[in-house]
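Dear support,

I submitted the protein below through the web form. The confirmation email said the job was done, but the results page showed an empty box. After a refresh the structure appeared. I'm attaching both so you can tell me whether what I see now is the final result or a partial one.
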Amino acid sequence: MNIVNFTPIPAFTGGLIIGLAVVVFFLLNGRLVGISGIASNALTEKENKFDNLLFLLGLIIAPFIYSLFSTGGINISISNSYVLMIAAGLLVGIGTRISGGCTSGHGISGIGRFSLRSIVATITFMIVGILTVFVKNLL
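What the results page shows now:
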């Protein structure tokens, strides 16, 4: 068992920050947080377009801000082709439309309000993710 990656304090702190962000977003906007919904609304909605774009901008610049205060830095390497990543992104987008939301919407906001649909969706996401890793490691 590898316990090197066991980091309960940072994980708990990160969870608290995510939970607080969901509550603040709901109180300020009257909507639940779901990245796919926010991205879709940023492209199609007229009224809250600026709010949605700011939220997405925050997701993009947050790692850069984090790296300014982090001692270890963030090492990112892309090992697959851009064509494969674009195809995977499109499949994820289609999947979020079919399931009516993404892991953040169902897993954070939906489970937090005890939505049976979100609980089933999140369990499905997790099972498919585990099976994908299992199959990939077999090949």
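Response: this is the final, complete result; the empty box was a page-load delay. The radius of gyration is 17 Å.
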